[in-house]
What we know:
By secondary structure, the chain is mostly helical.
Amino acid sequence: MYFRRxxxxxxxxxxxxxxxxxxxxxxxxxxxxxxxxxxxxxxxxVLKLADYYSVSTxxxxxxxxxxxxxx
Length: 71
C-alpha cells in the first residue's frame, strides 16, 4: 500500500530517508520501500511515525486531511 503522506511529511520536515529510517531503527532502503509502496509498513512503524510527526494515523493513511491527533 502506498502512503503519499510518508514522503510529504518527511520532506515538509526537511528530513532525509536515512534520518527517518534511523528513528524507526531500520535501513534507509527499507524505509524507501515503505514510501514507494513496495513493502508493507508494520503497524508499530506507523504508530511511531504518527507520534514522531505529531499527526494521527488516519492522516498518515489518507483517511482525513486533518493532521491533528485530537479532532
